[in-house]
Amino acid sequence: MIWDISYCSSKFAYLLNIFSNLFYILTALFILKIFKDNKIKDTKSKIFLALVFLIGIGSFIWHIYSSKFTFFFDSIPIAIFFVFFLYNLIYKISNKRISIIVTILFVVLAGLSTLLFQKFNGAQGYIFVLLFFIVVMIFVFFKNRILFNRLIIIFLLFLTAIIFRQIDLYACRYFVLGTHFIWHIITSFAIYLLIKSLY
Asked: Structure pTM?
């Protein structure tokens, strides 16, 4: 099942996977500071801020106790964040109609990929996001070169993060801390850059 995800089983890795979620909370605090400094108070910004906090809290709960129930604490805020970001990104470079169509297409395809491909230790959804992101970047390339350059950096960060996420069990044989915590650190920074790219 989609919640059958394995991590490095050492006690040190377990604790580090829990507390490395603090990077998401720190990211939310940095974003909050930016919004306050620039007097940004719109609904979109409040939603982004809430989602980053929820990603950190949800992942914290999931890593403390993994179950069918807590899986959704971890996955739902992340899924909503990607959908909300995609909608706002496409809207920034096109119009509301196109952003709705692209977002609906993303949700449908992401759902199918998550259900049909379950051999990636829970990373199938993230791999799909990365592939979809490539298509979006091609679209952005012809619309906004500055934004495209920012997205390239974010894409490379997510790609690196997924690699560390996927080698966690293998690395655990040689490195007691595993590598999943690096996924938390890199993605928290990538999330910060994603939000910043919209402003």
From this structure: 0.91
